[in-house]
Amino acid sequence: MKTVVAPGVPDLKAGSSHYFLRSVMGAARPRKDREAVVEPSDTPAESEADARPLTKRQRSGTEVENAPPAKHQRRDGEAGFSGRIQRPGVPPPTNTAAFVVPDRPSPPHRADDKDGHYVFELGENLTSRYKVLSKMGEGTFGRVLECWDRKNKDYVAIKIVRNVQKYRDAAMIELEVLHTLEANDPGGSRHCVSLREWFDYRGHVCMVFEKLGLSLYDFLRKNSYRPFHVDMVRAFGRQLLEAVAYLHSLGLIHTDLKPENILLCTFDYEKRTPPPGSRLGRRVPASSGIKVIDFGSATFDDQYHSTVVSTRHYRAPEVILGTGWSFPCDIWSIGCIMVELVTGDAVFQTHENLEHLAMMEQVLGAIPESIGKAANRSAAKYFTHRHRLNWPEGAQHRRSVKAVQKLSQLQSLLAEFGDASVKPHLDSLVDLLKQMLRYDPRDRIKAEEALRHPFFQAGPSDSS
């Protein structure tokens, strides 16, 4: 399938297509221990960001990278970017000044805060069309507000990007990706979030999205990190793979797949009493429908690739080792996500490269010599001269060794922490995950192939 790009997304400055933005559209993440920080992956010294987390599930994302200028620049009036195909007849993205209601003016102009965030008050207007109801989240990129759309009589989530040039540049690239997805899936059947429109308001790029439910991470958290039933895991995994297969068919790599970036389609849930001995939570989503969000880091395979991508817990070994990444890094992330949905918690909870690799070996077996031999110069220090992982000799702390020792092999991990509903499907699930979590990205299963795996062909489980 050829890549199709929706035309008309303007450049903000030369080279802007080489910025990548980490966003949290639609996810409520006020906790300080989950904010984005830059991870200096090539520095041997342990940084504050990579220290052993003091609270459960501390995470680290990626910042916007100041990348080299583009080799191919788009001039005003040109549609699309060099190397991709423009779909004929696709209208340009909507850049609206918003539906005008004379008696509902915008608030008086006020200065942004010191970091360039838009300053707002609940109940006031964001243009005359949207009324601000609540703050849904905040991150490096800016803020997400829940708003009432007076024109369509509906709730929406509006991502308001900081009034800082590099974030504006990154937002325009995210818009290009979103309109590419929409142009190729006008019916919205590929499980990707729908962008309704965008506009520029007082120096802030504002993206209007459909309002969705909780992220899978937030649902797990509200369920006390209890695992999902195997049927729910199967439904989530199938939709996630369908979304990623669609992205990959367009030449796009998401690069930041994680439970925070997978949203339920509705907030509705049911309360059930789990059977005795079950590890299931009391809350069960009313629907298994999900959508993938956060395309601020999505990268076309023929464009510049930043050195570090993905949030730490879901980062593929080829990213850590600097051997070059592409579509398979998304598959690795999905494998990690599915383990988390089955067990209730992230499997690789670390902020150190060597410890991360040691955890992989503890769960998945030894890293092949060929992989260690291919590591770039900065990652070669994690291996001995025989290209074996330098562990535990290279560990910086005893607590790091203990953290690795606590982990079990994959099958034991799923059997111990998964719900009883997993047991009849354990062998099939483990086989699928092992194909997703292969060290060599060339050997990793593709999204389309994974969808044909026996795990996804099984019917509903009899376990409750």
From TrEMBL:
Molecular-function GO terms, alphabetical: ATP binding; protein serine/threonine kinase activity
Region listing for Disordered, in residue ranges: 26-115
One Pfam entry name: Pkinase
Keywords recorded for this protein, A-Z: ATP-binding, Kinase, Nucleotide-binding, Serine/threonine-protein kinase, Transferase
Organism per entry: [Myrmecia] bisecta
UniProt keyword annotation of Transcription present: no
Annotated signal sequence range: none
Matches recorded under InterPro entries: CLK_kinases, Kinase-like_dom_sf, Prot_kinase_dom, Ser/Thr_kinase_AS
Sequence ranges assigned to domain Protein kinase in this UniProt record: 130-456
Lineage: Eukaryota, Viridiplantae, Chlorophyta, core chlorophytes, Trebouxiophyceae
Protein name: Protein kinase domain-containing protein
Cellular component, GO annotation: nucleus
PROSITE patterns named among the record's database cross-references: PROTEIN_KINASE_DOM, PROTEIN_KINASE_ST
